[in-house]
What does this fold into?
Amino acid sequence: MARIIAIANQKGGVGKTTTAINLGASLAVAEARVLVVDMDPQGNATSGVGVEDREERATIYDVLVEGVPLEEATVKGLHFPHLDFVPSSQDLVGAEIELVGAESREGVLRRHLAPARDRYDYVLVDCPPSLGLLTLNTLVAADSVLIPIQCEFYALEGLSQLLNTIRLVQRELNPGLEIEGVLLTMYDRRLNLSRQVADEAREYFGGRVFQAMIPRNVRLAEAPSFGQPIVHYDVLSAGAQSYLALARELAAQGGTGGAEGSGGPAPGEKAEAAAKAASDGGGR
It folds into this structure.
């Protein structure tokens, strides 16, 4: 049974898309069955994994608005055998308006993801940088929320709005929704500011802050321009090692699925070897 994780923060540029792509790939190289869904109209996750924008290709827009089965919009075995992907498109910009008249409009994504629960260990959904209907649909569909926080000034500003939205969804629409954890991104241990933000986040969220932190890393920044996850582009880079560590930590939390719960290996040396082999072979 899949664990559906929304990757959300209404602030832009905090690493939501980078995390969706690279956490998904890190879990997939450890042989967890992973589906990544791009719910952002900007489509950065779609281009970041090298999926071309083709008119004939079904996207998450077609699933939400036209009722196309999720399976028909899924790109199978992207870069790794266990990594599937549902692309976005610019048409998604109008989806919030087009869904206004839909029955139980906040639950459209949940209904379409329901059949996928039996096919995957993890479903990761990249949310847009807003708290509109697309993000609301994702929170209603999700089991938990992973919140990336950039280690910059004002990092925690505005989080109260997101947390209030999560509480509202818990109360009215999805009582089982949990906070999976808070992920510190763009961390630079040389800077006092990064350490200060990390300390403030741990003071505020306590044990919900992941031990793994994502550093500023040139190879991590380069990977999307080549349409590859970092574990495919350069598995030995600091960025790849950090996401592999995050995947290990997520799997160790166990519970409702995941690489560890499903009997697959936790992301580690075997995962690194698999990623290296795929990278050397050119991948997809």
